[in-house]
Structures
1.
Amino acid sequence: MSETTDAALDDFIAAAAAALALSLEAAWKPAITAHLQVTLRLAALVGEFDLPDELEPAPVFEA
Amino acid sequence: MWAWQSAAHIAEAVNAGRTTALAVVEATLKRIETHDGLLNAFTALTPARALARARAIDLSRAQGKIGGPLAGVPFAVKNLFDVAGLPTLAGSKINRTRPAAQRDSPLIARLEAAGAVLVGTLNMGEYAYDFTGENVHYGASCNPHATAHMAGGSSGGSGASVAGGLVPLSLGSDTNGSIRVPSSFCGLFGLKPTYGRLSRAGSFPFVASLDHLGPLARSTLDLALAYDAMQGYDASDPVCVDRPAEPALPGLERGSTGLRVGVAGGYFKRGMSAAAQEAMGRIAKALGASGEIELPEAARARAAAYVVTAAEGATLHLDRLRRHSADFDPAVRDRLIAGAMLPAPLVVRAQKFRRWFRARVLRLFESIDAILAPATPFTAPRLGQQSVLLDGAALPLRPNIGIFTQPISFIGLPVVVVPVPLQPLPIGVQIIAPPWREDVALRIAHSLEKDGVALAPRPPK
């Protein structure tokens, strides 16, 4: 998965904030962007791992 | 005189009539008042109910009734547990305006039914999204072994109060490591039970898929006493599994001989400080554990836990982020906002991966009884520290504290952290058992404690 460009991520954060009715102050933006970049990178690490279609997610989980 | 006594010793003394619950509780409250200024472990004391409860225990004994296994034992809880008459803060400023809890959480009620006495509530990282024990609203919980250092989080007060000799027993919560990290940094025994073992009802949640509750103590016997007292099905927590209580105490003295113990390799060998390596070496040697066990795709498991945490934590707090954003710790707020923006497929994918990882790790337990892994990569950092040097690279501190705990709680395995009393600061090792085998982890921890390899060290005066 390619790295999202800074401009694209800025647009995404603005659009997501509007869709979620979250009002963001400009000063928060760098930290939110940094956290989202880290989380997307980690999500990509999970996403690139092949899993069978039949595998059930584990939202309700028994150890 | 009761400050450093174990829960087991206190209960035995109260039940034998050598002291009273009232004397123990009065001494405890006094010690908290005089010593907590340095540690900042408590956010509220409950002296009226504690003294009334202690008097009731003493009256019951005077009437010839047999006391419980925790008779007169003072304990305290992370302030995300409901305590009747108090708002459940969960480390936040926002929750101060919540109505007071109507009743105690079931785990508090069960400990008190066994004779224990709640003396107060404990500091924690805001909404449990934390590994440091720092808190912008209430100040940091300080490490009793070196007060300029972190107690660990998010159950910071749970670690500081027990390691500082204020109480022998505390309760914390663990979503990604929040019992195990303070246990490691403060040099304590901590138990994160199997996911679904202990009721989470009456506690403020964080990540429903990953939240656990459990005890911290200075001995394995005290952990087992508390754990056994809290077991049992509770329909008010939909995750709590309906299975009979399986007390750990009866098998605690069985020793570790005959148990097959492996050392987590690969991912768990990287990024360890010299202290973590030393602690792992001592524990592995004492148990004769030489074989390495590879938990497949552990880095991905940690990543998936991170993703699930971000998304579910954000979901929980979305309305508060809309209405009270200025009242959050800014660091917590920004992480939660980022989590709210995660596209759904990435989160569902992480949940699918959890199923895969669980199946693969359970297979390992067909040929092994327990796995050792470091609890934290390093000893307690200094308060305010932002980065750490690992394998020659400067890395951001916060996200790296939980790298060894996150893959384990991700699939709900039971873990006992044992403290290794290194100088100048202790550090913990995880003893990881198969689901529902807390007894195995506690038994191994107890044998290490008896051999003197694991020990909750008393801080310098």
Note: Helices of chain A lie at 6-19, 29-47.
2.
Amino acid sequence: MKIEGKKQIWKDYQKEIAGDHYFYVRSCVRQNFFPGSEKTFLRILQNELHKDIYENAAHTTCSGIGYHSDIVPIATTMTMIARQFALMTEAGLENLATSCITSFGLYNEILETWHHFPEVEEKTREHLWNATKREFKKPANVAHASDIIYKYREEISEKAKFKLVNKDTGKPLKAVEHIGCHYARMFPDKGVGGAEYPYVLTGMIESWGGEVIDYPERRHCCGFGFRQYLVMANRGFSIACSKKKFESMEPYHPDLILTNCPGCPMFLDRWQYAISEMEGKTYGPNGQGIPVLTYEELAGMLLGYDPWDLGLQVHQVPVEPLLDKIGIPYNSTKKFSGIQGEDLGKPDSPSVLKFYTGQ
Amino acid sequence: MGKLYDQLATDVRFKEGLTACLNCGTCTAICPAAEFYNYQPRQIVDILQTKDDSQIEALLKSDLIWYCGECMSCVTRCPRNNAPGLLIMALRSLSQELGYFVESEKGRQQLAIKRTVGSWILDFGYCLYPSLITPENHPEQGPVWEWEHKNLVKVMERLGANYQKTGPGILRKIPQEDLDEIRKIFEVTAGIERFEKIEAFSKKKAGELGIPFDDGMNNEYIQQIYTTNSGSHTRKHED
């Protein structure tokens, strides 16, 4: 009885994740800043896990950044999302795989709103029909892309060529993880581990050989805050939030930051650079930063994919120190080359943050 | 019950976001914006609970409703199932509908977001578009973005994108018929109307303030709302 009781309690923190046949919707932030991560997600799903995942060129933004910066009304966003559902329905699919956490949170928010206010769902269907003559079924399952990588983390581990282990000491590398606010804050039952024990990234780190470091500001927002970053005059809020996290994690000497949300890796990467320029402060050893990775980048690295195919060259905080610790080979001279090896020049080096120019 | 309160109460987020606040302050304790700005979500809910139109009108015209980052940390922690973050969204919507947003420094910024993110949604089908995220407006993006921005087509090709090309894939050119569909969605759901209101109220305010204003991004009004911070918003550290 006691075990059953505990099992029942933990059931609230578990989530059903569809196993195959996904309709993929992309992320605005990731397509702009981490396109290699979306490329790698599909590569892992199709080539390593042999899953069926479909993308329709007609899908668009869900308008989530516009909605959360409050220029887009809720009725508009609901109808934009209804259109994505319609494209999924037309493709004969019912499992949604979202690349973006803002979208993921919104899909859940809107499905929940429709559940409580059926008249709002009806109105949205009417709007969609009037605008596009499309109809939709609601998804049977809504997974964030990280949920799917989490679900297959052991399979990925079996295929991996490297582990999250220091090649010289044999000790697990220390990772801090950052879940992203809209993954489970509003609807804890929609995220692995809920809002209290988010396990989606921790599960990956543990399965892949690393050690998760807890630190006081682990759950603090990265500072995107939508309008708090989009408008230049507000960016003090954004950098202050990230700085609070860096100061809190620094004493634990993390080897990497693993992120869940599209925006968080960008802010945790770029604000390290900005703080180094503004204050001369860096958070890694010897003027280095703390490398910030998406879960696809980490999975791809361990699977032995070329780091430049993953897009690690477009990080402002260089990832080379982490590659070196694990023993992952890379060709420095190709870091900033084009696809045919063409010379595209190189970024300037920052004033303070140690940089690897690819020579 | 006041008229403004009634208007707020028609917003589904207001219905979901306000049950009964006991003013415990848990939302304020967890709120990243409260730590940075002169802001307390508890105070927002407190004012709403008065249902007093004059107080609500002052709120709709103030900077206070524009500090929240919509992280929704308050939703997780409220012991009474209130959602201050959703109430903020309802307040911001009404503030724009009534044109009150132009009465505050932070509220006026909505025009800059409409002319960037809003335009990009309708023009390209994305909330962000790389060629328009300029290093000048985003110095924090650093030299790697500057390099990427200068070599955008080649770098996107290297990273596996389908930038500006047809078919599926990363940053593909979204077909015109699909852009037409989303514009139509914005029309039938009053999204276009919202954009037009942001423009019209902003233009009127620029006139009142005597600040040059036009349809582009380089006029004085846009530059001012995008870059100016009066410095009166943040909490001051005590020595």
Note: Chain B has 15 helices and no strands.
